[in-house]
Fold this sequence. Notes:
- By secondary structure, this protein is α+β, with helices and mostly antiparallel strands.
- The chain has 6 domains: 122 residues, CATH 3.30.1330.40; 141 residues, FAD/NAD(P)-binding domain; 156 residues, Polyamine Oxidase, Chain A, domain 2, CATH 3.90.660; 153 residues, Rossmann fold; 75 residues, ATP-grasp fold, A domain (Dna Ligase, domain 1, 2-Layer Sandwich), CATH 3.30.1490.20; 126 residues, ATP-grasp fold, B domain (D-amino Acid Aminotransferase, Chain A, domain 1), CATH 3.30.470.
- 32% of the residues lie in helices and 23% in strands.
- The strands form 9 sheets. Strands 7, 8, 16, 17, 18, 19, 20 and 26 form an 8-stranded mixed sheet that branches. Strands 14-13-22-23-24-21-25 form a 7-stranded mixed sheet.
- β4, α2 and β5 form a beta-alpha-beta unit.
- α1 crosses α12, α3 runs parallel beside α11 and α22 crosses α23.
- The radius of gyration is 34 Å and the shape is globular.
- This is Amine oxidase.
- Keywords: ATP-binding, FAD, Flavoprotein, Nucleotide-binding, Oxidoreductase.
Amino acid sequence: MAKSVKTVDLSNTTGLYYGPATISSGKTLHIAGQPGSTKDGHVPDDYESQIHLSLLNLRKLIIAAGASVSDIAKLNVYIVNYDVSNRKHARHIQRFLGSHRPAMTLVPVPALAVPSWLIEIDAIVALPEQPSAGPALPAASESYDVVIIGAGLAGLTAAHEVRRAGLSCVVLEARDRVGGKTWSQPNADGKGVIDLGAAWINDTSQSKVYELAKRYGAEMIEQNTTGNIVLEDFDGKVSPFAYGELPNFDEATKKNVVEIRDLCEAECQALDTWRPKDTAIDSLTFEAFLRSRGAGEAALATATIWTRAMLGVEPRDISALYFLNYCKSGGGLLQMRSDRKGGGQYLRIRQGTQVFSKGLASDLPEGIVRLDSPVKAVVQESDRTVKVQAAGTVYSARKIITTVPGPVLKNITFYPKLPPAKQLWSESLTYGYYTKAMLEFKTPFWVERGYCGLTQSFIGPANVVRDSCSPADEKWVLTCFMCGDAGRAWAELPMSDREKAIIKQLETLWKVRDLESQFVQMTSYEWVNDEWTGWGCPCPSLPPGVLDTLGGDGLREPCGNLYFAGTETAGEWKGYMEGAVRSGERAAGEVVKDLNAGAVKPKLFCARAMISKRAAHALFGGAWRPSVKFPGIKQVRSLYLLEHQSQVILKETGIAIPDGIITETVKDTKNALEQFGGKAVLKPQVLLGSRQSRILKDSQDGETLAAKLIESQTGPSLWDETAPSVRRLYVEESIQFDRKWHVSMAVDRENYCPVVRIQEIKTTSENSSTEEKHIRKHCFNFSLTEGIPQNAVIDISEKLNLSKEVSQGFGRVLQGLFKIFSEKEAISIEVDMLNTVDEQLICADSVFLFDDAAQKRQPDLFALRQSDQEVQEEVEAERHGLVYVRMGGNIGNVVNGAGLAMATNDAISLHGGTSANFLDAGGQATKQTMLQAFGIIMRDERVKAILVNIYGGITKCDMIAESIIAAASELGPLRVPMVVRLQGTNSEAGLKLLENSDLGIHVEADFGEAARRAVELAKGRL
């Protein structure tokens, strides 16, 4: 006979003689009294901390039974020595219940079963019906390797990392914008921008977001710390004090504040950033922790400013361990609170911080980011397939990365349900109250009075005020932070009174009158009303006991095919933009590793829409063209510069170079040679691949060679008649040197970081010689964000046996090369470093290669491009938004996507054929796209057959077929046979359209058969 009562156990209760909870046959959960103890039985002395732990234990049992707090029917609360004037339980039980209102009985008792227990709570819970199956979602209309939920910094970063590993993805964003909790609004007058959300970064320990700032051309404003700070005391008394000093407390109070500050700094530094562990500290609220360490009222009020300004919470509402770990994530309490170099509030962005998200989104291919697409359901259909429903569309994926804040997860239906540990994390995370109000004034009156604009208040409504001026825009702004209980009290005021309350406080803080006459406008946004952030900002926090229960990694550990990112999951700079970016990289790395797609590499360069030309050449430019050479013609994998252009960049960076003159005629060359006394080096200016130079005997020798190169329009030194004609010569001063090193800086793709390689060259000639011998080789890796380490320069100098003067010069040159490499987004740079007889270092023979994805960010650099020396088919393809790479065979390929292109080439090779090209038509495959693609391929006389291999995903196959038919019809009779293979959405309809087109197109559904037929047609066998 089945039992009518079922016991619900947790991992630490199975040995008890009673059950912590039971379920009756009527689907009612009866929870035994839960004391305020940790999972290991530790009971803190503090009553308020015990309240948090009691509610946590109650929540754990409710989740374990498959219910939620909103299913509670009745609560019984037993309190030892209940004091009606000190109802601390009410605040926390109300926050626990939210808007739910169950029946409740409070029972005062003289004692509980264990003397240290001060509170116990039991409950009756009505269990909901559990679904036997997940939501019946329709068939997926789009399929990806990864679906990313949220288009904030974490989600967009994850998308870049996933795509860089060769995986497909889509980013689903509920809002009508990207950016998440970064939201920049232009002022109504068009001057300046207001950041409604995250606003501050630094350039030292926040390397990821600082890299974004540089990448997207952000203009940074250093936070003003010149002048005094103002403190508003308990009684409203204000007193100024210098930045970096303590307020004007009495000596005993000052000593106590310093002791508590230093204690918190030491305690947070002792924690493991990623896996904080201390049961005793986590069992306490931060307030209880401070009081247990002897904090007086001023020290406690100071700490309250910390928790309010950083998280919008009171010290009584947050776990001491969570807060200390939060501080550790930003380098420590002092660093996170600092407004100076290295601090959390050191730099602001003139254009607004949303420029980061907008830049990341714009660098993704069109269609990757889907706005107005709130995710409603995530259904795990098998070990390998997950369906996601958003805005009426169903997506299929192998992995899901959610970057939404933990509290938002409750709004998504997961099937199966999230594991209890993840539910506990999501439901325990709560925001405090946190609102920024930006007040604009006609003048920076506080600066004029000798203040930096930073204030701290024990009473509010603004707990903290910061200068947020943009002098270049003539905007004089104070950002006022209304946080915690003081902020909530301000929010309850009528809207018309809120502005007045802040202005009145500012008048008090700086002792000014009639501030209304200086006031222009106030801008704010109530994040507590934003459902997509989980009704709060900047970062949710945890009450006592949760970290001890779950462990630090429990917040971010994947479960099944679901991975977690977002700033609250970060190990470093939790709650900041830096933390969001780092969390996106981490989650993407976990996904890529689990999909066996190779490790995600640290981000060095930004990917471009479609597959970039650099990536296309990396995939096909070597292995697929072993038998064909194009002497002198450079197929541009990225931007190459002519040598004289590279030399100008070196000079602009402060690196010494030989004097040189560009010439375009024999006469100009003769004049240049005369300026150098006939002793010079003559260098034809062509792209890498046929660069040569000749040391001249005299002016006549140079004039003769110039005439042969320029007037006869032959290749760069008559050894290569297929090379492009020489239009310019570079006449360079001849340098006498005694030592020479070839120095290169490039991306080390094995170690995922930049590398410097130095080869000492033994030569008896000048500037350049074919009689060279590489006698010593050295290399070292370095961090792109940190630059060339001084110890590496010292080490290389010792190995090369350099004098002190030459060593210093060597270091300066390396730093200059790094400046070019990082700021101009180079892929590789090479120079020959010459040590002259007077121990001066001069750089010659430079070869610079730049990332083609940087074109929008480096317009001046890319204006130097020499298209006349590139493969013209590639130039034309790029003009039409296509990616084309010339190869050595006779089958022209039109595909969409690099992965499919690789497979297509493999299939052609397998059947005995060779490809004439790689041409990526992109994701749209419109008539115009196909028209341009076919035109480029058919102008290649080597092409004997065309293979079109398209996978229809977002763009359906019937639409692709119509585009192919329209393009082929417009071109007229095809001079070579065409094979078309379509697969994907509506493929049958697409193939039927092609079969009925009467254009003589060979139609195949099978991949291998399509490749075989294209090979046979190219050989003339069919």
